[in-house]
Design brief:
The chain is mostly helical. It is about 90% helix and about 0% strand. The protein contains two helices and no strands. The termini are far apart.
Length: about 60
């Protein structure tokens, strides 16, 4: 499979087009990985804040009874 890819890349008449396509693929994969990491971190932060708010609300409700 890799051999076929290299054959196809070598047979292209404009290597600049191939290089641009590969660069776009690499940038796209990097962006997807970066967004996924950011979303996981943000999700963890939101869950922690929600747990803290629920704990504080429960404690305040129990103190007023």
């Amino acid at each position: 499979m890799i051999k076929n890819l290299f054959k196809r890349l070598k047979s292209q008449k404009g290597m600049s087009g191939v290089l641009v396509a590969l660069l776009l693929v690499i940038v796209g994969v990097g962006l997807v990985a970066g967004v996924q990491t950011y979303m996981q971190d943000a999700s963890g932060d939101i869950q922690t804040a929600a747990d803290t708010a629920i704990t504080n609300a429960t404690a305040a409700a129990a103190a007023t009874e």
